[in-house]
Amino acid sequence: MKIGKVLGNVVATVKTDSHRGLKLMVVQTLDERGEPHADPLIAVDCAHAGIGDIVLIVEEGGSAREVMQRPDGAVDAVIVGIIDYLNELKER
Amino acid sequence: MKIGKVLGNVVATVKTDSHRGLKLMVVQTLDERGEPHADPLIAVDCAHAGIGDIVLIVEEGGSAREVMQRPDGAVDAVIVGIIDYLNELKER
Amino acid sequence: MKIGKVLGNVVATVKTDSHRGLKLMVVQTLDERGEPHADPLIAVDCAHAGIGDIVLIVEEGGSAREVMQRPDGAVDAVIVGIIDYLNELKER
Amino acid sequence: MKIGKVLGNVVATVKTDSHRGLKLMVVQTLDERGEPHADPLIAVDCAHAGIGDIVLIVEEGGSAREVMQRPDGAVDAVIVGIIDYLNELKER
Amino acid sequence: MKIGKVLGNVVATVKTDSHRGLKLMVVQTLDERGEPHADPLIAVDCAHAGIGDIVLIVEEGGSAREVMQRPDGAVDAVIVGIIDYLNELKER
């Protein structure tokens, strides 16, 4: 999994059925000190995250379908938690 | 998922049956500010995208087969939406 | 698989059911000489690892579900061993 | 998928049964302008490619097994087409 | 697949059942000219490789389980062959 910070929302009116009704968010991946690190990505929010939240991201199709409870889900990254505390990142 | 900009089309007359009839497009992946970022890739278009469109890309075989409704699909990246709005990229 | 050093724990009270009860750890991946290398990641501990341990990490959903014995697991990285000896890293 | 240029062949007499009889080729991945880009890789040829050809590569186990029609195939990259034309790469 | 050079062995006495009895090796991935390239990795040896051998590596869970004939295998990289000849690397 990865740690990331939610930067914003994505709106895509034209999309395949597999993506209707999904809340898409832009996430900047972070290293253990909370610094921007590697590629930004788009993830489906399954943990009621908001802009600015530090989140836990799983990047795997099977996991995404499981968390979304959508066997037909065509998603490769999901937000599965909001991080309260990380040794390196210290208390939020 | 990733954000990308469609650069062009790919024509490959010699190809395996699994790829017949698929619309292949070259996509430059972007960061949240719309800057070229990381590797360009080839994706199958499933959202009627055109050259210059900012698109949503899923990079996972299971998802690709699901979106294309082709259980025998041998594809690892599909375009699943056209992005209208992204906080960082502002209004298109 | 990858070699990594456990940096700390992750606490996320808000998370999906798929992640309840899992021990999440921050791991810095290492090269064969034990130097920090590439991205840090979050992995589920399945080998009773502690902070500072040099560990073996598998980054694959199917393997994670198998090791955790949780077919509904939505995890893409697990700690599966604690490394005693690595030629390059010499005796611990 | 990726674009690549075939550099040469690979000969490995000692190999597991899963790889017997497969034509292994070294491929340099390219960006949209045909410049060498990212890691070289080894792919199984399923499109009768030759040294110097610009090819289409799928990097996913499920797709590889489908294209090779070998459910027991242990391959993570296959050549599925020979590229005639790519906007950026212009006419070959 | 990738080309790599075997650097050494890994010993991990504390590990999950899924990894008991497996021969773990540290492999430095190489480019087509035999130069060290990208991340080192740990792979399960299925081709009787030794330290210094130039090997063929598959990085995919499904393939690993197939080659190891262990449906419960929790491994994401296996050595499947020893490379005798590679155009670029010339005669060994």
From TrEMBL, chains A, B, C, D, E:
GO cellular component term of the entry, any: carboxysome
Protein keywords: Bacterial microcompartment, Carboxysome
Keyword Protease included in the entry's annotation: no
Main location: other
InterPro entries: EutN_CcmL, EutN_CcmL_sf
Signal peptide start-end: none
One Pfam family from the record: EutN_CcmL
Amino-acid biosynthesis found in the keyword field: no
Compartments it resides in: Carboxysome
PANTHER family in UniProt: ETHANOLAMINE UTILIZATION PROTEIN EUTN
The protein's name in its UniProt record: Ethanolamine utilization protein EutN
Organism: Paenibacillus athensensis
